[in-house]
Amino acid sequence: MSIRFGIRMRLFLAAALPAILAILVLLQGFLTRHERILTETLNEHAQGMAKQAANAAEFALFAGSQSALQRLADGARASDLHAAVVSFWTPEGELIVASGQPTHGRRLPVLEPGRPMLVNGRLLARVPIWSAEWTESDLFSAAAQPMVSSSDGRRLLGHVLVELELDILQRQRGELLAWALVATGSGLLFAGLLAALIAASVTQPLGRIGVVVSQLSRGVLGSRVDTRRAGVLRPLAEGINTMAAGLASNEAMLRERVAQATEELRQQKELAEHKARTDPLTGLPNRRAFTELARVEIERAQRFGQPLALIAVDLDHFKSINDNHGHAVGDAVLIDFAHRAQAQLRVIDQLARIGGEEFIALLPGTDAQGAFQVAERIRVLLEQRALAVPGGTLRYTSSFGVAEIEPQHPGLDRWLARADAALYAAKRKGRNRVELAPENPAEPSLLPLGQSPQPPLA
Ligand SMILES: Nc1nc2c(ncn2[C@@H]2O[C@H](COP(=O)(O)OP(=O)(O)OP(=O)(O)O)[C@@H](O)[C@H]2O)c(=O)[nH]1
Questions:
Q1: Contacts of 201 (CB under 8 A, 6+ apart)
Q2: Terminal CA-to-CA distance of the chain, rounded, Å?
Q3: Could you report the per-residue pLDDT of 445-458, keeping only the tens digit for each?
Q4: Mean pLDDT along residues 62-81
Q5: 162 FRET partner, CA 20 to 30 A, in 143, 148, 259, 372?
């Protein structure tokens, strides 16, 4: 089973573990050293006490005064709080007197002189007692052969054994342990707090940076990290802010470009639509645009019960104008017609060029008679006014076919066919005329617009 730690816990452990280990090692070292010093101090204390008693007991032993030895033992024991037993022994190791209950009963324990030992919770120190001044070498030779005289003739009078209760050691140990535990606990607590602070100093700014980065990724490009609260991650926060500013400015630039491109596309589309619906020579709506306009006007007329008429126009002998004066003059004639006819129409009327020299005028709210008058007005105007062309002037005429929409047959094709029929009637009757389509023709010639048969020339 694998345990996954978050970044906060990892940082905490990274900061806390070395500190905890250091504290524990220091504690171990401190306890060991203190224990050693305490033991050495007690050893010296026991050794010193035994030596003092040995010096004091030399005469009493020499004199063989048991009572004096007893007083000495009692006195020595009473003078030290921790002395449990002070006892004197013969050179052969037999107990002479004891103040307190010796640990080993009546047998002198085998101890290395000068080296106290821990026995049954007591610290035992034995010192030999010589008849005269003794030296350190005497002390050791007596330990090796306790019942013999020393080389310089001094005589071993006996031994003193001091037993110290180790409650002081235990108590001090307890106190030390308690103190060490408090110190260690405080140290660990402090190390933990410090590690938590270190972890928080990284994870909190990281959290704030994470929020901003997630907002940036959702497109909130105005989002910024508060660098004053970024702590140790301030350089990272500043970097992210710089990046966000760059993204925001790039996005603004991109938006501007997209808006520009969209506007250009819209204009191009508008232009394309305009071109698709406009005759480039005269600027008038073309056949396609006319068809749409006519359908709308048919709907409107039907809905409001208003009359609607159209005038189909075809310039007379236009081919000969082209042939005699050239194509440019022919174009000028077409443009001139557009201007003149337009000038005779209302604003709501629509003039369209639907073929070479074919035009249609759509007249909403106008009946057949009204349209006839308009057509006649245009016809007369063309007939009367000459057009200035290179090298002189030119007169041209036009034929007109007028038809009003039939409420009972509102179809565009049928309506156009009726107007065409009237137009070609005008052609047949000699051109430069306006003809009205019959109101209810039994069989209207339903030829599509622009495909009418050539009327015979008069
Ligand atoms: N200059 C010019 N001529 C055009 C244009 N479109 C068509 N035409 C010409 O217009 C002429 C039409 O000739 P026709 O259809 O015979 O008609 P018309 O000569 O007017 O004869 P009628 O209609 O019977 O009086 C053709 O010669 C076409 O080439 C144009 O945009 N400019």
A1: 231, 232
A2: 109
A3: 444 444 443 333 22
A4: 88
A5: 148
Residue 153 confidence (pLDDT): 66
**Parent domain of 255:** 233-270
CATH code for the domain of 92:
3.30.450.20
Q: In angstroms, rounded to a whole number, what is the distance separating the alpha carbons of residues 311 and 326?
A: 28
Shared domain check, 423 and 313: yes
How many structural domains does the chain have? 3
Residue nearest atom 12 of ligand 1, based on CA coordinates: 319
Reported pTM: 0.53
Nearest atom in ligand 1 to 455's CA: 24
**Residue 85 contacts by C-beta under 8 Å, 6 or more apart in sequence?**
77, 98, 99, 100, 101, 102, 103, 122, 161, 162, 163
194 or 5, which is more confident:
194
Query: Could you write out the DSSP letters of every residue in 88-144?
Result: EE-TTSBEEEEES--TTTTBPP---TT--EEETTEEEEEEEEESS---HHHHHHHHH
Do residue 263 and residue 292 come from a single domain?
Answer: no
Residue of 58, 297, 357, 435 with catalytic role: 357
Assess whether the C-beta atom of 336 lies below 6 angstroms from ligand 1. Answer: no
Query: Residue 5 is encoded by which pair of tokens?
Result: 């730690």
Task: Report the 10 Å Cβ neighbour count for 186.
Answer: 11
**pLDDT, tens digit, 9 for 90 and up, residues 332-387:** 999 999 999 999 999 999 999 999 999 999 999 999 999 999 999 999 999 999 99
Does one domain contain both 41 and 76? yes
> 3-class secondary structure for 35-60?
HHHHHHHHHHHHHHHHHHHHHHHHHH
358 CB within 6 A, ligand 1: no
How many whole angstroms separate alpha carbon 210 and alpha carbon 218?
12
d(Cα 358, Cα 356) in Å, to the nearest integer? Answer: 6
Give the span between the Cα atoms of 58 and 131, in whole angstroms.
Answer: 6
Rounded to 5°, the CA angle 356-358-363 comes to 145
**Within this chain, do residues 257 and 351 fall inside the same structural domain, yes or no?**
no
Q: Is 450 in the pocket of ligand 1 (CB under 6 A)?
A: no
**DSSP-derived pairing of the beta strands 308-315 and 95-99:** unpaired
Residues 59 and 98 in one domain: yes
ipTM confidence:
0.88
Q: Is 147's pLDDT higher than 50?
A: no
Confidence of residue 441 (pLDDT cuts 50, 70, 90): low
Place of tokens 């007596």: 142
